[in-house]
Please model this.
Amino acid sequence: MAASGVIVRSMLHVTAALIRGFLLRCPHCKTGHMFRTMFEMYPVCPDCGVVFERDPGEITGGMGINISVTMFVFFVGFILMNALTSISLVVQLLIWIPFMIVFPILFYPCSRGLWVSILYLTGNVYRE
Ligand SMILES: [Zn+2]
Model:
């Protein structure tokens, strides 16, 4: 009984941290904004001072999430559209090619926010 309570609390903690990252809020203090503009991330949280991405190469984690989610949505969407509708392949390409260009751009801040949440959950988001 007590072990299941710990598991539920841990799952809620992980889910809440990932949601805060997706919503571009600091996973540590829950209030600080991660981004100054849509494409410019603060190096440290303006509210609590934790460093979001400690190493210069950390941006690749967010890029990996971005590419993975984009490809997943494309493949599932394409397969479902192909199976469930009679839309021609040309029209499907006219839908999915712009999607593959626009979606990663719009999802960019959220993917970096999710990566910062993963860094936080693994103990790599803290003050200097
Ligand atoms: Zn913060």
